Amino acid sequence: MRGLLLGAAMLGTVSAAHAADMPDLPVLRGGFTDGLSKTTRNWDGVYIGGNAGYTTDATDFSQSVVGLTNYIFRDSVLQQPTANWSLLNKANTQGVNFGGFIGRNWQWYDAILGLEGTYSYFDTLYTQTSGYNSLVITNPPGDNPPEGTTNNYNVTLTGTAAAKVKDMISLRGRVGWDGGDVMPYAFFGAAVGRMDVSRTVTSDVTLTQVVSTTVGGVTTTTSNTYAVPVQSQTQSQHRTNTFAVGWTAGLGLEYCIWDGLFARVEYEYVRFSPVMNTQVTLNNARVGLGYKF
Q1: Whole-Å CA distances, 5 to 10, 123, 156
Q2: pTM to 2 decimals?
Q3: Mind listing the pLDDT tens digit for each residue in 144-166?
Q4: Does 210 or 84 have the greater pLDDT score?
Q5: Measured between alpha carbons, how far is 186 from 272 in angstroms, rounded to an integer?
Q6: Which fold has domain 43-136+161-197+238-292?
């Protein structure tokens, strides 16, 4: 009996020594699940920052002088035939932008919702164009010449237009995803731009009357040209610091550099409502630096 107890004691001593020599495996500490967990970043909170970038400006002047030509030819037989003349073309330019942003994020698990206000200043975003069009309009609707008379209105239009975008503010809603140190996001919102817009058109109208008369079987044709001073004039319009409302949308990516400091890169599309029949569209590419409190 004493031998059996002595053998059991020796076996327990050897087993304890062997267990002490075994490596400390993570699975024995319950650390295996730590290796599968995702490290998240707290993007929730108020943030502020600044940015700079590059802007391309596409301005559509195709309908810019329509309001002026409609005024010149109002209450005349020429208003309808000239109402949709496309006198001017589109124009493009590019320049740099500077600005800042301030916003607030709300985070639920990996989903991030935010509201952000931005300001952008544009340097040298100035576009201009000019155009010329000439047309002979014969017996337009509403014109009732005498029998045997043909009225030919010789209409010439010369126009110019220009637009300069100065700056812009926007209010954007954001939807993002917590990818740890990175947060991709999309946004959509309203924008208000401040710009200078001008347009000028000059019309020159003459009337050529062709009269055919038949006497004794012989037809005689005469032609006379007259000036039409009422529709021959110049009209101009200019607005300084006028506001245009529009909408904005785009995509971006933020990267946490250290603690609350983050870097940003984004693309933004902006489309403004027409001002004096002139419509401006912007494409903005930016990089920025911000801090989340």
Answers
A1: 9, 95, 123
A2: 0.79
A3: 888 888 999 999 999 999 999 99
A4: 210
A5: 20
A6: Porin (2.40.160)
